[in-house]
Amino acid sequence: MPWRTNPNQILKILVVTAVYLESVVATLPTGSLSRNKEVPTTCNTGGRHRGSRVMTLSLPTNIRRRRTQSTSMLLRAPATKASSPFSFNNLFSSFLAPSSSNIDVESLKDSIRRAAKGTQNGVQASKEKRLQIAEIVRELEIANPTRRLTSSSVLDGEWKLLFTTNDGSSAGKFGPFVGDVAQNIDLEKEEYLNIVSLGNGIFKGTLSATWDNLSSSTWKVKFKNIRLELLGFSLQEKELKAVGTWRMTYLDDDFRILYAMGGKNQEQENIYILTK
Fold first, then answer.
1. CA–CA separation, 249 vs 223, rounded Å?
2. What is the C-alpha to C-alpha distance for residues 255 and 113, in angstroms, rounded to an integer?
3. Cα–Cα dist 260/146, whole Å
4. Which residues on adjacent β-strands are paired with residue 236?
5. H helix or E strand, kind and range, residue 222
6. Cα separations in angstroms, 173 against 30, 77, 134, 243
7. How far does the chain reach from its first CA to its final CA, in angstroms?
8. Cα separation, 269 vs 152, whole angstroms
9. Which residues contact 78 (CB under 8 A, 6 or more apart)?
């Protein structure tokens, strides 16, 4: 039977191509990949004649088909937030993203420092303050200058916690007290130490961990042990087997932003902003 070009055949080709590309992108090593819910869709492959075959395809819901729409609608990307996971549709919208060259990075970092001041690492931050900082962070993340966030030499060294939405021990909170939090990263040894100090070091808690590099923006963090000290004397040391996920979104010489999930908090990411 000779090939007949008609709208149904063109629609079928475009739909199958889109599904194929979506499946290829899904295999890329991204930090947090999400898949859209699928819905069944039928395409008539033989026109309106009796006995025509009907093929059922399973398509992502973000590819909506109507016979009255132009075929370009199949490739239209939905609006996404700066922290949205990578997908086939976002590949197209990225070409229209705002230019980072017009962003005043230093001004944004200063705004975050001022907003975080007096919040005790974020523990005492109000809901309004957290929303204010989150809005500034989204602008700053667009201007991220570091391509490989998880392996850049800029990571090396000591970082001090400026702000977090975690209100537990990771924020330096022990009972009614909130201490200083520092994070020492050694890329060569593939080890980091998270150190909480109270009373100018009178009391100190040190959490050690290593990591697996999952992608250019994501670590799988494997906690090894925790050690508690008083006046330099060891009080307790305990081995740990917990794991977590760090999703990094911004890194420069003196400012770092990441989102962490793990331990007791498996449903929600907490933001951590650290400075040098």
1. 22
2. 10
3. 19
4. 228
5. strand 218-230
6. 33, 43, 21, 21
7. 71
8. 23
9. 62, 89, 93
Give φ, ψ of 155 to 5 degrees.
-65, -30
Q: How confident is the model at residue 261 (pLDDT cuts 50, 70, 90)?
A: confident
Q: What is the CA radius of gyration of the chain?
A: 25
157: left (phi over 0), alpha (psi -120 to 50) or beta: left
Taking CB atoms within 8 Å and a gap of at least 24, the contacts of 126-132 are 130/165
Q: What's the CA gap between 207 and 211, in Å, rounded?
A: 13
In this prediction, residue 168 has a pLDDT band, given cuts at 50, 70 and 90, of: confident
Q: SS3 of 32, please?
A: coil
Question: Model confidence over 198-221: pLDDT tens digits?
Answer: 988 899 999 999 999 999 999 999
* DSSP H or E segment with residue 43: strand 38-44
What does the DSSP 8-state code read for residue 28?
Answer: S
For 106, residues 6+ apart whose C-beta sits below 8 A from its C-beta are none
Q: Is the pLDDT of residue 50 over 80?
A: no
3-state DSSP call for residue 47? coil
Lowest mean pLDDT among 179-188, 212-221, 235-244: 235-244
Residue 159: helix, strand or coil by DSSP?
strand
Q: pLDDT by residue (tens digit) across 66-98?
A: 433 433 332 233 333 444 455 555 554 444 445
Question: Hey, CA dihedral for 212, 218, 220, 223, is it positive or negative?
Answer: positive
Helix axes 127-142, 105-116, angle to 10 degrees: 160
Tokens of 76: 């239209």
For residue range 105-120, list pLDDT tens digits in order.
999 999 999 999 999 9
